[in-house]
Structures are given as structure tokens and as C-alpha cells.
């Protein structure tokens, strides 16, 4: 795939739509924003939108659909949110019931789609600045932890802040603070660096989600607010139905990562 | 008043509450964030919250109350939103019906308060950096214009982007872009500089709101998204009831301006 083509984001969506692509989207359509998805009934949409407003670091909103609409203004030409993600997760009352490639069969006219920024965008900026990203080097998922920091609740949505961790030398951590701070719509600057216990993480070698990665001598763990936070809050709220992307299987948008920098 | 005291923001609110202060809040409680207010019935709150999400530059949310609550988490110790602003405007179906010092009499259990960032915060940073702000020098209100840029609509809320204008030498405009860009929660970087016609402003000497200011030879007009935008959108939506602050009579919060910088 020609990842430098301006049409590459749409190509990825069409490959997902036609079933050609059912795997993760990492490294596809380089330069384009990939997005977390949370799809909820309209009667929960106000509480969830307010949850995102109150917790902008873990829940940086890129766009919100009209109820029942299968597109989101500005995110993708001819986007069909029911088909254009390679793999979905369908939840009933907080229980995972299916992982389909297409959610047309369970679509409802009251569903509202929330597109939430993802760390892929700032990782591209880190790599471009020569800051190594360990889980990418090691071909793993980023390690994620439930921290002792509580989110600001809204209605039925609450729960711990989930954080992702990237180990770095202090000099790279300083660069990473500067670089990711310029990307507030994809989690922004770290929320912590150094001692994991300080945010309630007792065993850095055993992440709650994703994979463990090597921490080398002299490196410190650096923690960012993570898009799993809203997923955990949704699971805890046990809505009648909710739909998310499957981990790593993101919505590839027509937005350029570079446009998210401030 | 001792404007450097950490209690000065609360002092201003108590003076408003007791009726001692009924005038504008400019230059009171220096260093503390002052906020625009929009108070709406719960049945319009989702559309308005989404309007703010879709238009973050004119509508940077600092906080949202629970329905009927007279406080907003994090904005002020013992805040009573019904009394702590020096002067309010009460609107019925988009028509201004009263400008009281207290809205306890019209309060309803379904009212939701939206606190929206205000340019006072970034003007303090501009002055601290030696960038002159003309309307402050001339003791006037900032000039504001309805631009030809449309906001992204949400439900009943729509309308033009209203912009504020500050004339500056190009070297100061460059500094101002850098400084205000660090304050995304109080309108952030300018949306335009130079030719007013480019954003549909035909007569820079006749603002739609506020006062005209002197533009000196060599200066260019610099335009920021303005908090009057949501007020105009609310007036256009003609809700049964809405409450705003009276222009210049802001909610003084316990948040420090410096904490808003990124």
C-alpha cells in the first residue's frame, strides 16, 4: 500500500468495508489520524459527552455523530461507521457478546458515535523526533495499567484513569513531554513520570492490558492517559448495547496527524 | 482589595453575593480565571455541550454543573452560581427580559450551568509579555464582529463565529500567536490576522459588539474566537429560559490563569 498517498486512509477503510482487512491498523496509512470508537444509545450520550469534557486527557474527542448517522463530519469522505473499521466489539450490559467485522446487523437509529484520539498520532511524532518507543521496537502492544487516579464521573460513567507506559531515558522523557504536549487532542503531555507506586501501580512488569515491555537500566517509566479509560467506564456503566473498535483495529480517518499539533 | 491574596477571587464572589459589587469584574482578583456563563434547561444541554465540543475555539468549556446544582466542581469554594456574579441577563425565547444582580428568583431544578473561558486570561499573559492591548490602554470594551465563518451547528444551536479584534504591530502579533496558543482553554491562538474582508468584516471601524479602538499606522488587526459566539447561538435558539452573565460582569473563579497554559 502506498502509505504516502492522500487516498491511503480511504483505501484502508474500503479494505475493512469489503472484508479484505480484518487485522490491526498499526502502520497503515502513515500520517493519518487513527481513532478509538465508542458507540452508545442517545439516552446515554449526554452523560458520556460530559464524561469526555470532564476527562479530556483520556477522552480527547475528535468528533461526535448525529444519532443514527453512519458518518462523522470531517473524519472521512464517504465514511460508513458500521463497516469501515476492521473489527468491532459489541457489548450488551457490559458483557462482550461478539467481535464482528461489520455492525450493520446490530445498528440502531438511536446510536451516537464518539471518535476519540489515540496515541498512534503522538507516537509517530516521537519516532520522527528520534525518541525510541519500546513496544514498537519489540513488536508488542503498549502496556496499560489501571491507576489509582479516579476520573471525574458523569452520570453512569466513572472509574479509574487507565494509563499507557513507555520507558525512556530521562533526556528522551523530557523531549517526549515537549512533543506530546503539542498534541492535546491525542492525550497530550504525560500525566506522570518516574515512580509507578505514586499513581498506584505496584507491579510495572504486569500490565492490566496490553503487553509488558523491557525497561532498561537508567530508563524511567513515562505514563500517558489512555483511550482504554472510556472503554472501562462504558463497560462499568453496563449499557443495553455499546459498540467499540477491537483493540488495535482503529478507525483510520482522513485527518492528518500533523494537523492535530498546536 | 488585595489582588494578590489567594482569597481575592472568593472575596469578589462574596461582594457580588451581598450586592456590594454590581459592576464589571475587569482588573479584580488579578491572576484568577474569569468565566463566561451560559445557563440552559437540561433538555437543551446535550445540543449545547455538543456545540461547544464542535466549536472549541469560541466555546472553551471550563466546567459544567449537574442539573439544578448551584456549584461547579473545581471552579470555586462555596460557589453559588445564582448570586456570585455581579450582574446577570435573563432571556426568555431569546429576548432579554431582566438584568438582575441575583437569579435565585428564576432558578429551576433543571438548569445546567456552562462556564466558558474568557479572553481576560490571555490578555493578562499578553500584558505580562509586553504586548500592548489597545482596548485596555483606551479604557474600552474589546471590539467584536460577526464574521463570515459559520460555526459547526448542533441541534438548535448555530450561527456565525463572533471574533474579537486587537490591533498590533506585526512583531507583537507574532508574539501574541505564540502566547495565546498556549491558552487553548481561553480561545487559544488567533483565527485570523490581517485583511478583515477575508473573514467577511467590511468595516473594521464599526464593531457589532463592544467599542471601536484606534488602529495605528503599521498595525494589523488580529482576530480571536470570542465568547459572544455561544451567546449569539443561544439567542438564536430562543430557549424558554436562559441566563448569562451581563457583558463584562464575569464569574471570578478560584482557578489560576497560569494553570490554563499548556
What this model shows, in words?
The structure is a homodimer of 262-residue chains. With 262 residues, chain A is of the alpha+beta class. The first copy, chain A, has 2 domains: 8-119 and 239-260, PSTPO5379-like; 121-229, PSTPO5379-like domain (PSTPO5379-like fold), CATH 3.30.2040.10. Chain A is built from 6 helices and 11 strands. Chain A has helices spanning 8-17, 45-54, 120-128, 134-137, 170-181, 228-237, and strands spanning 32-41, 61-64, 88-92, 95-98, 111-117, 144-150, 160-168, 192-193, 220-225, 242-245, 251-256. In chain A, the strands form 2 sheets. In chain A, strands 1, 2, 3, 4, 5, 10 and 11 form a 7-stranded antiparallel β-sheet that branches. In chain A, strands 6-7-9-8 form a 4-stranded antiparallel β-sheet. In chain A, α3 crosses α5 (170-181).
Helix share, percent of chain A: 10-25%
Low-confidence stretches of chain A: none
Structural class of chain A: alpha+beta
Regarding quaternary structure, what we see is homodimer
CATH class of the largest domain in chain A: Alpha Beta
Major β-sheet of chain A, in short?
Answer: 7 strands, antiparallel
Strand content of chain A: 15-25%
Largest interface between protein chains, with number of residues from each side: A-B, 16 and 16 residues
**Structural domain count of chain A:** 2
Element order, helices and strands of chain A? HEHEEEEHHEEHEEHEE
Count of separate DSSP helical elements of chain A: 6
CATH homologous superfamily annotation of the largest domain in chain A: PSTPO5379-like
Taken from the alpha-carbon principal axes, the silhouette of chain A is globular
Keywords (chains A, B): Lyase
Protein name (chains A, B): Putative hydro-lyase BN77_p210007
Family (chains A, B): Belongs to the D-glutamate cyclase family.
InterPro entries (chains A, B): D-Glu_cyclase, Putative_hydro-lyase, UPF0317
Amino acid at each position: 500500500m502506498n502509505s504516502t498517498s492522500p487516498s491511503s486512509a480511504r483505501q484502508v477503510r474500503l479494505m475493512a468495508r469489503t472484508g479484505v482487512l480484518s487485522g490491526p491498523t498499526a502502520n497503515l496509512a502513515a500520517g493519518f489520524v487513527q481513532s478509538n470508537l465508542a458507540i452508545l444509545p442517545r439516552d446515554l450520550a449526554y452523560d458520556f459527552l460530559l464524561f469526555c469534557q470532564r476527562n479530556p486527557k483520556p477522552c480527547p474527542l475528535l468528533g461526535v455523530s448525529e444519532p443514527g448517522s453512519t458518518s462523522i463530519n470531517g473524519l472521512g469522505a464517504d465514511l460508513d461507521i458500521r463497516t469501515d473499521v476492521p473489527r468491532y466489539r459489541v457489548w450488551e450490559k457490559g458483557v462482550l457478546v461478539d467481535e464482528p467485522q461489520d455492525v450493520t446487523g446490530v445498528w440502531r437509529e438511536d446510536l451516537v458515535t464518539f471518535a476519540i484520539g489515540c496515541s498512534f498520532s503522538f507516537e509517530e511524532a516521537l519516532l520522527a523526533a528520534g525518541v525510541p518507543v519500546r513496544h514498537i521496537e519489540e513488536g508488542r502492544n503498549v502496556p496499560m495499567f489501571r491507576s489509582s487516579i479516579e476520573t471525574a464521573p458523569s452520570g453512569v460513567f466513572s472509574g479509574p484513569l487507565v494509563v499507557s507506559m513507555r520507558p525512556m531515558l530521562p533526556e528522551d522523557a523530557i523531549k517526549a513531554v515537549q512533543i506530546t504536549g503539542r498534541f492535546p487532542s491525542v492525550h497530550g503531555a504525560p500525566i506522570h513520570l518516574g515512580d509507578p507506586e505514586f499513581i498506584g501501580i505496584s507491579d510495572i512488569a504486569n500490565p492490566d492490558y496490553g503487553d509488558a515491555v523491557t525497561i532498561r537500566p537508567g530508563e524511567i517509566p513515562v505514563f500517558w492517559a489512555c483511550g482504554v479509560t472510556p472503554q472501562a467506564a462504558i463497560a462499568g456503566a453496563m449499557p443495553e448495547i455499546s459498540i467499540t473498535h477491537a483493540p488495535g483495529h482503529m478507525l483510520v480517518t482522513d485527518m492528518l496527524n500533523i494537523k492535530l499539533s498546536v
